[in-house]
DNA sequence: CGGACAACCTGGTTGC
DNA sequence: TGCAACCAGGTTGTCC
């Protein structure tokens, strides 16, 4: 599941491969993955454009093209955008091929076909849909302790559901929500408006440190995730709670609990992330 | 507006 | 062994 660290790893791996290259033939095998264009129009607009720069916002990948066109991609669950040389691989889950000058290109593969491409030309507002409403990501200056505290107090849902809200914090998905809450010592089922100031500070620091570490380890591969070079991430070796329900907590030895929270599978340590916050010692 | 929930998809796993 | 049911989850859309 590509979240911020995975999309950032894809961005970095593709940037060095395809920046400044010109697009040649574009083949659409399945126009389901095109959100705002038909396949003919999509191919015609992309053809002969030069990829100038790759950016990322939250979980969105942006290809900035010459003539001010922008190709936006969200990988959702199982999307993969991979660089190839020679011929693109034969694959029944390959929905789109963008060939580049010099006998190489990018192919988009997505088993579940949830991922989407948006293509915008000069003058079109490409900040529509999800991009328009994204909140700051944990690496942004705007993501401060007061911002986090104010946002947590505005809702009554669980803290995990709040952390997953992309309009509040961009880039955190199910894996890093569980890992961040563990690192902060906060139970995912806690009501988000009941966190103490100390807990908010811990959550703020944990979000930044967990994502920083995950980017450094090139993301998490549970099953499908691959970067732009078709390589797996490494952070799955460092997960402390996600996918470890029933195992023992590496910190205290307690059996990790697997439950549902906001419809998502959720794992936490009942000892390190207690349901009720202990009274803080008086100063 | 917030909150709840179905829908989109297929492959892997589980249960009978 | 076969087959049906269920589960995984990011985002959008709908409904109350």
Describe this structure in words.
The chain has 283 residues and is α+β, with helices and mostly antiparallel strands. It has helices at 4-18, 39-46, 145-153, 159-163, 174-184, 197-216; strands at residues 23-28, 51-57, 60-65, 70-74, 79-85, 94-100, 104-110, 116-120, 257-261, 264-268. The chain has a four-stranded antiparallel beta sheet, covered by helices on one side. 40% of the residues are buried. Mean pLDDT is 93; it is low at 278-283. It binds a DNA duplex (16 and 16 nucleotides) through residues 1-3, 32, 59, 74-78, 93, 110-116, 129-130, 155-157, 164, 166, 173-174, 223, 263-265.
Rg from Cα: 20 Å
Beta-strand proportion: 15-25%
Query: How do the helices and strands follow one another from N- to C-terminus?
Result: HEHEEEEEEEHHHHEE
What strand line-up does the widest sheet have? 1-6-7-5
DSSP summary: helix tally: 6
Mean pLDDT: 93
Shape: elongated
Question: Which segments are poorly predicted (pLDDT under 50) over 5 or more consecutive residues?
Answer: 278-283
Please report the total strand number as a whole number.
Answer: 10
Helix/strand/pairing class, anyone? alpha+beta
Largest sheet: 4 strands, antiparallel
Helix content: 10-25%
Give the termini separation: 43 Å
